[in-house]
Amino acid sequence: MEIKKGIAVSPGISIAKSLTLDSEDYRIPRRSIKPSQRMIEVQRARNAFKDAADELTSLQTKYDDIEQREIKDIFAVHLRFLHDRSLRKKITDLIHGESLTAEYAISITLREIASNFVKVKDQYISERAADIRDVERRLLKQLLGRKREDIDHLKNEVVIVAKELSPTQTAGFDKKFVKGLATDAGGKTSHTAIVARSLGIPAVVALEDLAGNVTTGDTVIIDGNHGIVIVNPDDETVKQYQQYSVEFTQLEHKLDAIREKPAITRDGTKITLLGNIEFPDEAEQVLQKGGEGIGLYRTEFLYLNRKDEPGEEDHYKAYAETIKVFKHRPVIIRTVDLGADKYTQSKRFAPEPNPFLGLRSIRFCLQNLTMFKKQLRAILRASVLGEVRVMFPLITNLQEMKQAKMLLHDAMEDLDEETIPYNKDILTGIMIETPSAALTAATLARDTDFFSIGTNDLTQYTLAVDRGNELVSSLYSSTDPAVLRLIRTVIQDAYKGQVDLAVCGEMASEPQHVMLLLGMGVRTLSLAPPMIPEIKQVVRSVAIEQCNTVARKILTMNSERHISNYLCDAARKVLPEAF
Ligand code: PEP
Ligand code: MG
Asked: Under a CB-based contact definition with an 8 Å cutoff, are residues 309 and 345 in contact?
């Protein structure tokens, strides 16, 4: 039994067999297998060799022209490697002798040969190292590709263990069978974590070297409440966690019972609780959990699960589906926030050296006007179906906001010409997620209808800490005094400028932060749908005066640790059963 501690990012308990994924870039971690699995791995290696050779042979037949002779010759060299008996024997001996996975045995064997080739002085031979790497990639593609296909056709419940997962991969998991996620990489507000929380799949990230120590088929417990992962637990531990899981589910059902009750503090202040979604079908979940509308629709996910770019009609259909659930309630559609950790699968965007500071979000849209206009037109067309609002992400200055609004007006004029109806008074807002936007909030407030504070990025950019990097995750905190001062500035400027204000970053989904946010003056929170009942329960358990006292005290503190401890104590006092 092995116990690992990481960061809890999505609550719940799961116990299932592992499906361990290796990374797309084919860096294969050393992983030991049980003696009983050796024959299975040997067979997997044999199949990979056979299928890779078949693939090459059929490719070879496509290059029959005389001028394509060179390509054919390269394939012939690769085929010779694949048919080399001593090479295969070396690999199967490794699997048998050292109990390694097929992937790892193939990878280290071929890498050793390639590095020996590189050392040879003869240029022709040293250049063959590239061929060996190619053969390695081809074999690994057979092994890993099949595993990825397995994920699409799961028949049993599994927990996914991986070095890292992209938001796209995570969003594609079948919730019926994928019961938990555990990754070596990631942070509390990485988009993969956000997607796991939205889907309600228990998840733990930042486990450092877990993936290298878990083989497909190992039993794994994921405790998404405490950030603990247990590999091959003993019977006693399994029993304990089964009991814990039952209790947790009961608590969740109890919380669901407050769905119909209003989100009002003990002294009668109404707090609006909205939901954050990535896909239209999540709107129903927001409603089920007692949410009063959509405070953040991350529309970029429309781009992430497909190869081609969505058209105006694809946008429109997705928005119409969402609005249908909340016909007379706000639906805030955020324009696409692509880039950073959200790239399309076809990697249409050239890799950037520093993507979080690069061509991301509104910046990308302002340089890709045809794409942006399609989305703006679709939002405007959908605006007649309900209470639609449009929100621009990652604004860093006034010009950017004005430019985005100008494009919205251009789209309005086009629709006017085509006599297509839309809401001429549609409300437009911006996300405050950069220090520059926070510091100029008073100016920005003059030209906008609402602010939504994106604490995930605001924290990242204020503290210069990558939100998805486990190596610096201990430095990432939305309750750092510097972040709190910026949040306070934005709230004050929103009040002075008379613009609506909400908080939609993950901070709003964390029960221990509710008193602080209410005490600082926030009255609208937009959060992960599964967290709505718990946050509502906190709201219903506190009085605003109490929250004001907490906020006043916190804003005099200079240490993040003191602030966190103080907030946990205060929350425990008002709602002991939840903490
Ligand atoms: C944020 O940055 O707080 C936010 C809500 O946007 P996202 O998490 O999609 O970057
Ligand atoms: Mg953001």
From this structure: no
Cα–Cα distance, 416 to 413 (Å, whole number): 5
Please state the pTM of the whole predicted model.
Answer: 0.80
For residue 449, the CA-to-ligand 1 centroid distance in Å is 19
Q: Which of 432, 457, 459, 462 maximizes ligand 1 atoms within 8 Å of its Cβ, making it the mutation to test the pocket?
A: 457
Token couple for 572: 């425990």
Residues 6+ apart with CB under 8 A from 40: none
User: Measured in angstroms, how far is the CA atom of residue 4 from the centroid of ligand 1?
Assistant: 28
CA end-to-end span of the chain, whole Å? 28
Atom of ligand 1 lying closest to residue 340 CA = 10
How buried is residue 431: exposed, middle or buried, by Cβ count under 10 Å (0-12/13-18/19+)?
buried
Domains of the chain: residue spans and CATH:
2-24+149-252 (3.50.30.10), 35-144 (1.10.274.10), 258-578 (3.20.20.60)
Contact (Cβ atoms closer than 8 angstroms) between residue 537 and residue 576: no
- Two tokens at 574? 């008002």
DSSP conformation letters of 334-390: EPP--BTTB--TT--SPP-SSGGGSS-HHHHHHH-HHHHHHHHHHHHHHGGGSEEEE
Establish whether residue 466 lines the binding site of ligand 1, counting it when its CB lies within 6 angstroms of any ligand atom.
no
- Name the average pLDDT for the chain: 91
Residues 557-573, mean pLDDT to the nearest whole number: 95
pLDDT, tens digit (0-9, with 9 covering 90-100), for 395-432? 999 999 999 999 999 999 999 999 999 999 999 999 99
- What separation in Å is there between the alpha carbon of 264 and the centre of ligand 1? 26
Return the ligand 1 atom nearest residue 504 CA.
5
DSSP bridge partners of 433: none
* Tokens representing residue 109 in the block: 């064997």
**Distance between CA atoms of 573 and 294, rounded to whole angstroms?**
31
Question: Which residues are marked as active site?
Answer: 191, 504
State if residue 433 touches ligand 1 by the CB under 6 angstroms criterion. yes
- Cα 456 to middle of ligand 1, angstroms: 5
Whole-angstrom distance, CA of residue 353 vs CA of residue 141: 26
The torsion of the CA quartet 282, 283, 285, 291, rounded to 10 degrees, works out to 140
Which residue, judged by its Cα, is nearest atom 8 of ligand 1? 456
| Dist. CA 456–CA 461, nearest whole Å | 9
Query: Helix/strand/coil (H, E, C) string of 528-573?
Result: CHHHHHHHHHHHHHCCHHHHHHHHHHHCCCCCHHHHHHHHHHHHHH
Amino acid (1-letter code) at residue 15: I
Give residue 346's pLDDT: 44
Q: Which of 17-31, 240-254, 494-508 has the least mean pLDDT?
A: 17-31
Kindly indicate the confidence band of residue 345, based on its pLDDT and cuts at 50, 70 and 90: very low
Give a three-class secondary structure readout of 28-83. Answer: CCCCECCHHHHHHHHHHHHHHHHHHHHHHHHHHHHCCCHHHHHHHHHHHHHHHHHH
Beta bridge partners of 15: 221
CA nearest to 263, candidates 284, 300, 289: 289
**What 3-state DSSP class applies to 236?**
helix
Residue 330 three-state SS:
strand
